TrEMBL record:
Domain Helicase ATP-binding intervals: 272-452
UniProt xrefs under Gene3D superfamilies: Nucleic acid-binding proteins (2.40.50.140), P-loop containing nucleotide triphosphate hydrolases (3.40.50.300)
InterPro entries found in the cross-reference section: ATP-dep_DNA_helicase_RecG, DEAD/DEAH_box_helicase_dom, Helicase_ATP-bd, Helicase_C-like, NA-bd_OB-fold, P-loop_NTPase, RecG/Mfd, RecG_dom3_C
Source taxonomy: Bacteria, Candidatus Magasanikiibacteriota
Family: Belongs to the helicase family. RecG subfamily.
Reactions mediated catalytically: ATP + H2O = ADP + phosphate + H(+); Couples ATP hydrolysis with the unwinding of duplex DNA by translocating in the 3'-5' direction
Enzyme class, spelled out: isomerase
Coiled coil: none
Domain annotation Helicase C-terminal: ranges: 498-646
Enzyme Commission code: 5.6.2.4
Designated name of the protein: ATP-dependent DNA helicase RecG
Length: 707
């Protein structure tokens, strides 16, 4: 048998167990070896019964003197009681609801019992301990016992048993880290680490094994980033000379003064553009922090150097908003700006909408527009990722700006690099998602960072309130008042993202749809608001299951003031600008991460109107109340993200898909020192010398994309 052998070849694995194991991703012997415990119980100390004290987690070794079962009067459960003698004293042991125990165990047998010592009026006892016949190599008792994440229908004992059956295969594991790299990183051999993670002899073993295994996961990510970084750094980019005078004029023409952070970010970008090496930068800044002008400055400089700029947004609405902003920002120059999406084709704000109503000029065919792009008549091309279609050919593309979709940015960029033969365009990714440094280093290790932390001065703070349900009517009255004053309102409902965590269970994410009283679904809420609460107002709804044309249409209606109240799921999260909206009402707020709530909140307060964010909850545990209260008084997206990263982990903060993208099983964003170590070791890596490392990155990518 080898590592790739199916686990079904093992003893005691039937069809049912096979299925359940595959739920955990365990199909081969290797999968089993790489299935790691998430914690341990230390039952390594074997004590005499006479020396026991209440509260200890220990192992005793003794003979069964008595054992019998009876049915409890109250709970109707089977209770098994035994008396154990180890030469020093006797101890009572009890199990609940495990009728088979009295058949398995017999008077006179000597066993290990591992569990917690408790005390009641009759003295000390052990409740539901793990037990095992006395032998040299134990699995469930008398050692540091691993606790694995489980799924329904599999027990700790089963996993431990299976692992003990295959542990000798560790000798077949080939360490993918070259010896000298391992030395530099100061991590143990992979075989040893795998053995120790399942069968540690002491706490040090666990620490060393964890370090090695976490390092492996984080190192692959860093290697990948390093490969990208190296590929980019050897390629050539157009040099964009700084247009100092025009840039000064541009800044002077703005109706506001740039914040210090905006100036620093702009400067960093302009510096990068001036180099013959492609810029690869992530511009992070809270909603409303003013990233657009920074991008505008980079665009202006690029176009004044006679190159083209492409700006991509994840949705048509966002693309259109950018188009409008850029037309205004660049109006003082002879710069041609176009918008190109599936349903819209505009040049320089001449209204040419293809399927919409406001066709003022003759409509522009895709062919005409792409000819203008290819000939270089158009300088700034704004759109969705449709821009990356092979049909669109640029003349001299020198800068690609991607808004709110960094992952997509990186992947697409690779394809752009491949397409562009001589010069690779500079790349700027923008996001309002606050990404703490540790996360950025891991996820976007290949990107340089510019951060806008400071908000423009005169920004009004959005008033945030956690509202008790008995004040709901007051909130509705308030909303009606706002609408009367001409404002608009968002109502956000969760689409079920309840994470249940049972001690020995793997995290189960429940995507079941609502209908229950617990969760407010968009449609139910919409019906209620539209028919009962605000029959006289214009209410509409939005959710992810709608066709994108429908979504865009509803958003357009909201943007143009045809809707007063928009009931929506989290699809409105990304940078949509509705300056007239002043109330953000969030149902089931406990279901969202704080960073996400912050994104919602950023949808309002985008003009001079005082804005409000109301949070409602359907069930309030103390913990979630604490989180929401923290949110109530904190306006800094970074602080909120950091808080949630600690409390709820990266999955909750950045969505399971993104943290899933990293494929982390054992490492987390809290492993800052290992993240740094992995980054340091990866920096400047000579991939010619270590082809195995390159291969590993390839395998990792394949794994991730298969999911
Ligand atoms: P985001 O970073 O969310 O994309 P925007 O670039 O859309 O933010 O800017 C939000 C609003 O703030 C815009 O109306 C913009 O004109 C304005 N703005 C940008 N910078 C400043 C500033 N330094 N002072 C005042 N208002 C600013
Ligand atoms: Mg923006």
């Amino acid at each position: 048998m080898n590592l790739k052998e199916k686990v079904t070849k093992l003893n005691r694995i039937g069809k049912t167990l096979e299925k359940r194991l595959s739920v955990l991703g365990i199909e081969t012997v290797e999968d089993l070896l790489f299935y790691f415990p998430f914690r341990y119980e230390d039952y390594s100390s074997i004590l005499t019964i006479a020396s026991l004290q209440a509260g200890q987690e220990v192992t005793i070794k003794g003979k069964i003197e008595l054992i019998n079962s009876k049915r409890s009067h109250k709970s109707r459960k089977i209770i098994t009681e035994a008396l154990i003698f180890d030469g020093s004293e006797r101890l009572r042991v009890v199990w609940f609801g495990q009728p088979f125990i009295s058949k398995n165990l017999h008077v006179g047998e000597e066993l290990f019992f591992s569990g917690k010592v408790k005390s009641d009026i009759f003295g000390l006892q052990m409740v539901s301990p793990a037990y095992e016949r006395v032998k040299k190599e134990t699995t469930h008792t008398a050692r540091i016992v691993p606790i694995y994440p489980l799924t329904i229908g599999i027990t700790q004992k089963q996993i431990r048993f299976l692992v003990s059956q295959v542990v000798h295969y560790v000798d077949e594991i080939v360490d993918w880290l070259p010896d000298d790299v391992r030395d530099v990183a100061d991590v143990m051999e992979l075989r040893e680490a795998i053995r120790s993670i399942h069968f540690p002899e002491n706490q040090d073993d666990i620490a060393h094994a964890e370090k090695r295994l976490k390092f492996d996961e984080l190192f692959v990510l860093q290697l990948r980033a390093e490969m990208l970084r190296q590929a980019i750094s050897v390629s050539k980019a157009p040099v964009i000379k700084f247009q100092e005078n025009y840039t000064k004029e541009f800044v002077a023409s703005l109706p506001f003064e740039l914040t210090k952070d905006q100036k620093v970010a702009s400067w960093e970008i302009i510096q990068d553009l001036g180099k013959a090496k492609p810029m690869n930068r992530l511009l992070e800044g809270d909603v409303g922090s003013g990233k657009t002008v920074v991008a505008g400055m980079a665009t202006l400089n690029t176009v004044l150097n006679n190159y083209q700029v492409a700006i991509m947004a994840p949705t048509e609405i966002l693309a259109k908003q950018h188009y409008e902003s850029f037309c205004v920002l660049l109006k003082d120059h002879e710069i041609n700006v176009c918008l190109l999406t599936r349903s819209m084709r505009f040049i320089n704000r001449d209204k040419v909408e293809i399927n919409g109503d406001n066709v003022e000029k003759e409509s522009l065919s895709l062919k005409e527009l792409s000819e203008k792009i290819e000939s270089g008549k158009i300088n700034v091309i704004i759109g969705t990722h449709a821009l990356l279609s092979d049909k669109i050919k640029f003349k001299d593309l020198a800068l690609v700006i991607v808004d709110e979709q960094h992952r997509f940015g990186v992947e697409q960029r690779a394809s752009l690099i491949r397409r562009q033969s001589a010069l690779v365009p500079h790349f700027l990714s923008m996001t309002a998602t606050p990404i703490p440094r540790s996360f950025a280093l891991t996820m976007y290790g290949d990107l340089d960072l510019s951060i806008i932390k400071q908000m423009p001065k005169d920004r009004k703070v959005i008033k945030t309130r956690l509202v008790d349900d008995h004040n709901r009517q007051k909130a509705y009255d308030f909303i009606r008042e706002q609408v009367k004053q001409g404002r608009q309102v968002f109502v956000i409902c969760p689409l079920i993202e309840q994470k249940e965590k049972d001690e020995n269970e793997i995290e189960i994410i429940n995507y079941s749809f609502t209908g229950s009283q617990e969760k407010k679904s968009v449609l139910i809420e919409y019906e209620k608001l539209n028919k009962q609460i605000f029959p006289d107002l214009r209410v509409d709804y939005l959710h992810g299951k709608l066709k994108s044309v429908e979504k865009d249409e509803k958003m357009q209606n909201f943007a143009s003031g045809k809707i007063d109240i928009l009931v929506s799921t989290s699809v409105v999260e990304v940078g949509v600008d509705i300056p007239n909206a002043s109330v953000m009402m969030i149902e089931g707020a406990e279901n969202f991460g704080l960073a996400q709530l912050h994104q919602f909140r950023g949808r309002v307060g985008r003009s001079s109107h005082q804005s409000y964010c109301f949070l409602f909850t359907t069930k309030t545990s103390v913990k979630s109340k604490e989180r929401l209260e923290f949110f109530e008084k904190t306006n800094d997206g970074f602080v909120l993200a950091e808080y949630d990263l600690q409390v709820r982990g990266p999955g909750a903060v950045y969505g399971t898909s993104q943290s899933g993208l990293m494929n982390l099983k054992i490492a987390t964003m809290k492993d800052i020192s290992i993240i740094k170590l992995a980054r340091d070791v990866a920096r400047g890596m000579d991939f010619q010398k270590y082809p195995s490392l390159k291969k590993k990155v390839g395998e990792w990518e394949k794994d991730v994309h298969l999911e």
